[in-house]
Amino acid sequence: MPPAQKKLFIKTFGCQMNVYDSNRMADALAPHGYLQTSNMEEADLVVLNTCHIREKASEKVFSELGRLKKLREQRSVKGRNTMIGVAGCVAQAEGDEIIARAPVVDLVFGPQSYHRLPELVTRAKMERVIDTDFPEEDKFEHLPAPARKISASRGLSAFLTVQEGCDKFCSFCVVPYTRGYETSRPMAAIISEARDLAGAGIREITLLGQNVNAYHGPDADGNENGLGALLFELAGIKGIERLRYTTSHPNDMNDELLAAHRDLPQLMPYLHLPVQSGSDRILQAMNRRHGSKSYLQIIEKIRKYRPDIAISGDFIVGFPGESDEDFSDTMTLVKEVGYASAYSFKYSPRPGTPGALLENRVEPEVADERLQQLQELIKRQQGEFNDRCCGKTLSVLLEKPGRQDGQLAGRSPYLQAVHVDAPSSMIGSIVPVRIKSAGPNSLYGELIAD
Ligand code: 5AD
Ligand code: SF4
Questions:
Q1: What is the reported pLDDT for 450?
Q2: Cys-Cys with 115: which of 130, 136, 139, 414 at CB 3.0–4.6 Å?
Q3: Residue to mutate, 172, 174, 182, 353, ligand 2, most ligand atoms under 8 Å from C-beta
Q4: 435 and 295 share a domain?
Q5: Under the phi-then-psi rule, with left for phi > 0, alpha for psi from -120 to 50, and beta for the rest, what region is 342?
Q6: For residue 89, which atom of ligand 2 is closest to its CA?
C-alpha cells in the first residue's frame, strides 16, 4: 500500500545551496508520502531551512518559530498534528539552543543529515530529535534523485551542488563550522545528476559550492579533477546549454578554469569572485590569504581569457580595525574592477569565529555610513553596466511570464533580468534579443525576427 499522503512546507533562508538542499529534502520525503505545498497552513510537516551567515539571518529563525507556534495551535484545534523541523546552518550551529529555547520544535538536523530525514521524522513522532553529526557516509550517495516530473516543475534553470564546506577559514565566516571541511562529489555522480536534469528539460545548470572553484572530485580512475575539467565534461551533455558556478575564492582561479571560460560557449561570461575588502591590512586580518593586488591581477587575467566577462563580488564593511583609509582602499578597488553587480554587508561578529574575538570594533554608525557609500557606488556601476548593454544583442533564456501581458521574463548571459515581448509558447527557448532600454535592475528588449 502506498504511504498515506501528507503535506510538506519548506521555508528556505540564505544561499542557493539551501535552495538546492530544500529540494533534496523534498525528494527524500516524497517516497514517504510527503507532497510539497506552498501553503504553510495546510502542512503536516514544516521545515525551516536556515542560514547562520549574519546575525540578522539567524534571528529570523526564532521569529518564524513564534509564528509557527500559533499555526500549530490553530491546526490542533481542528484535530491536525503539525511537526516542526529546523534544518540548515542555524540548526548545525545552535541545535541545542533551539531545542532548549523553542519547545515547539520537534526535530533539529544539520546539513549533513538530510539523507536520514525520513528516519528522523519517524523518530520525531515519538520524541524530540536532534541530529547535527558530521557522518562518515556521503549524504549524496543516499539521497534519492528527484523524479523527472518534479525536476521539470522546478523551472528551466537548476542548481547542482558539486562541493560543500570550506577549509579556508576566513576569520569572519561561519561556513567551515556549519558546513564542515571541504568535500567534493565524484565527477560521475555530478554528470549523472546533470544528465537527469537535461532529460527533465533543464537548460541551465549552476554548479554550487561554498568554495566551488576548489572542487577536486575524483574521476572513474580515482584521479582528482578540478572545476575546469568538470565543466568541460558537463558541456558535452546534450540539452544543457548554459553553465554557471558560484561562489569562488580568488586563490582557486586556476588556468584550466580560465581555459573553460575561453573555450566553452556554454559557460556563461559571469564570475562571482568575492574579495571582501580592498585593504591589504584588513584582508590579512580576515585571513583571506590574498592581497588586493593579486585579486586585481586575477581579474585582469580572466578578462584576457574572456574579454566580455561580467564580474560580481561580495564586500564586508566595518570589519574590526577598518579605518577610513582601509575603507577608501575598498572604494578604489571597486572603481578599478568595475563590477556588473555586487553584494555588500555590514560585518556581523559570529560566535565561534576568530573575528568575533577581535577588539577595535567599528562604530555601527560609521559602518552604516560606509555601507551606504559602497552600495551607492556599486549601484552606479550596475546601472552603467546595464546601460552599456543597450543596442546590443544578447541571448536570453526565456523562463516565465513577465510582469506585463504579452511579456516574458528571462536571463541574459550576464545574469541580468530581461523582459521581452514574446508569446508564452516561447518559454524554454534561448533567443537573440536586441536590448532597447535598461533600468537599474533589469533590461528590456525585442526579439530579433528570423
Ligand atoms: N558578516 C558580514 N558578512 C559576512 N559574510 C560572510 N560572513 C559574514 C559576516 N560575519 C558575507 C561575505 C560572503 C557572503 C556570502 O556573506 O561577503 O562572501
Ligand atoms: Fe547561510 Fe552560509 Fe549556511 Fe548558506 S552555507 S545557509 S550562506 S550560513
A1: 62
A2: 139
A3: 174
A4: no
A5: beta
A6: 3
What percentage of residues in the chain have a pLDDT greater than 90? 94
Q: Are 261 and 314 in contact (CB under 8 A)?
A: no
Mean pLDDT of the chain: 96
| Tens of pLDDT, residues 247-274 | 999 999 999 999 999 999 999 999 999 9
Q: How far is CA 373 from CA 69, 148, 327, 439, 444, in A?
A: 40, 46, 10, 20, 28
pLDDT of residue 274: 98
Q: Quick one: 377 and 409 in the same domain?
A: no
444 Cβ closer than 6 Å to some ligand 1 atom: no
Query: What strands lie across the sheet with 270-272, from one edge to the other?
Result: 270-272, 310-317, 341-346
Closest CA to 201 of 174, 232, 238: 238
- What confidence score (pLDDT) does residue 342 get? 98
Same domain, 105 and 233: no
Q: Which atom of ligand 2 is nearest to the CA of 52?
A: 8
The CATH number of whichever domain residue 119 belongs to comes to: 3.40.50.12160
DSSP letter at 201 equals: T
CA distances from 4 to 35, 40, 44, 104, 372 (A): 10, 19, 12, 24, 53
Q: What is the residue with the minimal CA distance to atom 4 of ligand 2?
A: 15
Q: Is there a single domain that holds both residue 80 and residue 205?
A: no
Of the residues 341, 373, 388, the one at which a domain ends? 388
Ligand whose nearest atom lies closest to the CA of 288? 1
pLDDT in tens, 383-422: 999 999 999 999 999 999 998 999 999 999 999 999 999 9
Task: Tell me the C-alpha distance between 260 and 310, whole Å.
Answer: 15
Residue 317 has pLDDT above 90, yes or no: yes
Ligand 2 atom having least distance to the Cα of 49: 6
- Give the distance from CA 339 to its chain's centroid: 19
Residue 58: per-residue pLDDT: 87
Measure the CA–CA gap between 443 and 341, rounded to whole angstroms: 14
pLDDT for 145? 86
Report residue 359 as a C-alpha cell: 577588539
Q: Which of 16, 89, 25, 5 is nearest to 51 (CA)?
A: 89
CA-angle at 60, arms to 55 and 61, nearest 5°? 105
Q: Indicate which ligand has the atom closest to the C-alpha of 249.
A: 1
State whether 344 and 313 are in the same domain. Answer: yes
